[in-house]
Amino acid sequence: MRIKICGITTPRDAVIAESLGADAIGVVVCSKSQRNVTLKRAREIFSALKPTTEKILVTDSESYPELELMMAQKPDAVQITHPFEFSERPPVRIIRTLKPGMEELPADCDAFVIDGSMGRGVFFDRNFASGIINRTEKPVFLAGGLSPDNIGEAVRMINPYGVDVSSGVEKSPGIKDREKMSEFIRICREA
Fold first, then answer.
1. pTM for this one?
2. In which domain, by residue range, is 139 found?
3. In which pathway does it act (predicted)?
4. Helix (H) or strand (E) holding 61
């Protein structure tokens, strides 16, 4: 199972998450999120990581010029919430965020993140998550209210391709807690 630690705001937290076994680091840019960082800061965070750690820019931007700027940074993927349409294959992988109530699965992406929480710690909708996983062959990441306290049960219930955590492993918004990250990753690997 793939593990993404999202909402990283410092190179230090990124390196700690990587050293604990995170497969991917998510950095929020061009967003109203309290975890938002500049593209310059995102580059600093990503440059501190090993080449094998997946680097994902995450945004809720509705601006195509901003999306193009993000893709120009050459991350491994860009995770989007806005239903952008692409006339040709983007230069990076696209991960689409799905929220409960969304019935149509976009075809023009490489993976999905089920997340109605958007970093607020609201627990995911089990029926919606199971339904999406059963309807697609694409990788599906589970997000929303995950923490060391519930990740084991969530993984056993849903059996996602991967998990994506932000607020559930924080001391405060954007500042990660080493012990919570360690416990979260350990439980994921055991589940």
1. 0.94
2. 2-190
3. Amino-acid biosynthesis; L-tryptophan biosynthesis; L-tryptophan from chorismate: step 3/5
4. none
